[in-house]
Amino acid sequence: MKFQKTWIFLVLLGLLWHGSYAQKTPKSREAALKRCATVEYMQQLRARYPSFPSDEAFEQWLAPRLRSLEEAKKKGVYKKATYTIPVVVHVIHNGENIGSGTNLPYAQIESQIRVLNEDFNRTNADAVNTPADFQPVAGSISIEFKLATRDPDGLPLAEPGVHRVDRNAMGWSTPPFSDSYVESVIKPATIWDPNLYLNIWVLDLAGGLLGYAQFPESTLDGLPSSGESASTDGVVIWHKAFGSNYDAAGNPVNPAYDLLSAYDRGRTTTHEVGHFLGLRHIWGDGDCSKDDFVSDTPLADGDNATSSPCTYPGRNSCNEGTNDLPDMFQNYMDYSNDVCMNLFTQGQMSRMETVLQNSPRRKELLSSPAADPLPIYASFQVDKQSGCAPLTVVLTDQSGVDSGEPPISSWTWNFDLTDVGGTLSPASSATGAGPHTITFDPTALGPGSYTYEVELVVDNGSKTASFKRNITVVVPSAPQALPIVDNFESGTLTAGNGTTEVWQVSSNSPDGGWAFTSTAYEGSQALWVNNFDADFSGKKVELVSPYFSLSGASKPQLRFYVAYAPYSSNFYDGLEVVLLSDCGATETVLYTKEGTSLATAPATTLLFTPTAGQWREEIVDLSAYVGQSDLRLAIRNKGGYGNALYLDAVKLYDAQVNADISLSASRGKSPFTVTISDASRVEAGQPAINSWSWDFNATSEQNVGITPYVTANTAGPHTITYEVQSTTAGLHTVQVKLTVSNGNYSDSKTVPITIEVPLNAPQDLSVSSGGVPRVVVSWTYPNDNGAEGFRVERSEDGQTFTMVGATALDELSYTDETVLLGKTYYYRVYAYNDTKQIQSDYTAVQEVSVSEFVTGTAPQQQEAVQVYPNPGKGIFTVTLPQAQQARLRMLNQLGQEVWRGSMQGKHQVLALTLPRGVYFLQIQTNERLETMRLVVE
């Protein structure tokens, strides 16, 4: 329902500024890095959940508990605890092999857990670098971060503590990911119970962010209901700042991991886990008057981005009087480079212990069994999990026992536990540890996708354990010959994975989305996804082509038409074309666009319905894959709760001949005469085109007369006149289709021509100013043929006009109260119909001068209302002559409302997220209505 989006949109205008920052792509990632976004993230979280406790409330809750712990330590009655925290690392990757790109190697993940344990227990090799001034307060905690041994179902993890997620299989957007996308899509889909696991997400993070964390909560009344905040609880780290290129002794590892040099010792994760356990930045995120609520960290007026050689002392930004110390840039909660960080303080350790003992979800972690050792466990790895038949897979045993248990003595394998059938070579079962190489071949079962469940049972004489994995083997359908053309005229859309000769909704897309629409580029039907009313964020919504082969092709291309308009800069969608090879086991992104780059029309807060001129042809080159077979294409909607996305005229073909049409104009008023020319081309080495077939009314529009003819079979050019047989205003689309051939190849192209029956224009325009700073504009409209209303435009030079107002169809006058005394203005009026996207001609321009000779005094508000800066980039201040209540309303140049709000007092700051352009801000007080022209840069 769109009212939900409107509410979210208004919240985003004023609060979620950081989300837009995080989507920027700086020219240099390293130059624009932001070490930590936890503070901004917590602001967003509190905006999302108003009942979430403030910083002040949390500190009031924590303070007495912290005092109790510190007093117990001073009296020597505190029993030191050992804390164990199970960790799961969600590796969000882009389909790479393990160890490549964003799919980090396991050893790199292990290195990060080692660093966490060293830094929190102060066993880090560089602890010796802590300055003598800070050695007395350096602290440690008896804590062990352990990679989880079992998943949420209690089953053993093949890679302890690691959950690898292919964003392609999830239907997610192309990375890098904005923090808002991580929060709304990735986290809720992947999080493991935060009462049992410390969740760490490692991914390609946008906006120059290295990481952020969710701060702990209190046990105060009024926390977010239903545990909403639990679905996002954890730590997020950029994949190039996770892990360490140095071993436990501080020596470089070889080969090094792909980490940014300034952040290659794992201290970003140490910093964010510090936040997760309740630590604040050492400067308290303010000046010298702000505190981090830890007594043994010196005050600072901001962060220190200290880099090698980490010279001490650095700056001393705050004077604390006696025993004043310089800034503690070595603290993990500062912003220094990794090489300069080496300590937490005792006060910070006490604070984290207090959180661990009292905070919801933090204290529950301490009793989690997720990292407990398994007496005996079964596990195995496979070198591939899917592919075309016959598929050969190597299965490698990774089973084991805990210390003190007898070793495993038997292994029993079943490679087809659910009796799929087909041929399994050398056999469908085996014994022994292996590795075992098995070929799965369900070819005899016919085209389709077959899932084999493989089970391993191990035994050590006293205990047994089992483990299962799935292997998916595809028997592809016979490849379709090129060209493969689908105009979606059939009226049926089946589910499948390339098993017919037409495009299908993928059976791997349970979320639906694609449907038929009568709004088409050519013919009478197209496909669309209604992102306007349905939120498909993070959901897999795709079309798949039939299987095809590029053997023998020379210049294969995919061609299609798309139409799209975003809802706003915060709500927009995307489109992606992916090549599926190896029967879907390998995905290659060929085309991706989103937001304004995908848009074929301006953003609109109304449900988008494209006109004939708001479609764009897209061509995707497939030449790099010539010779390959068992291929499919997937066209994926990347939902963002934005607006409707349309797709039509999909064609996969060998583009040796390309039909094309040139028009002298694509839109005109009836009767409309247009010159239509052949613009087709052939590839080098091909014979010239020798056959042309024109259809100047390919969809047989019944109410349009066409002269001198409807079809032709010569190259042309052809001059055709189109005349609509109706006086009712509106747009009429006629499609011109050309089919060409050179004897070897043929191709077709369709283009639309829009013929307009215009609205009747207003008449008898008059303007007057009766000795006061206002102008009355009036007109007549004797013959309405479909208008919705009128718009009034004004100019100060008689050349450049902007809209100043709009009226309903039965209102034939408008009073402009935004004029100034002593100035001359020019006015014109036209009728409009936004539904049909048409307007009338303008009236004749009328001139009026506003007299300077007035009795009385102009109202104070007329002189004193101000909006500044103007032009501006989205942040504007409204100033009234006196404190009062006012209603605010923003209109675009079409007179459509795009924002509304209110103010109380004399000043109000507006934080607006609107596309660049000219707007009109209406300010309504009890006395009058003021309209200000506003420019958003």
CATH class of the largest domain: Alpha Beta
Strand count: 55
Note the total helix count: 11
Share of helix, binned: 10-25%
The CATH architecture of the largest domain is 3-Layer(aba) Sandwich
Largest sheet: 6 strands, mixed
List the uncertain runs. 1-32, 221-226, 853-863
- Percentage of residues in DSSP E strands: 25-35%
Your description of this structure?
- This protein has 937 residues and is mainly beta.
- It has 6 domains: 26-295 and 341-365, 3-Layer(aba) Sandwich (Collagenase (Catalytic Domain)); 376-475, Sandwich (Immunoglobulin-like); 484-655, Jelly Rolls; 661-757, Immunoglobulin-like, CATH 2.60.40.10; 763-849, Immunoglobulin-like, CATH 2.60.40.10; 860-936, Sandwich (Immunoglobulin-like).
- The chain has 11 helices and 55 strands.
- Strands 1, 3, 4, 5, 6 and 7 form a 6-stranded mixed β-sheet that branches. Strands 20, 23, 24, 26, 29 and 31 form a 6-stranded antiparallel β-sheet that branches. It has a 6-stranded mixed β-sheet with strand order 21-22-25-30-27-28, with no helix packed on it.
- Residues 1-32, 221-226 and 853-863 have low confidence and may be disordered.
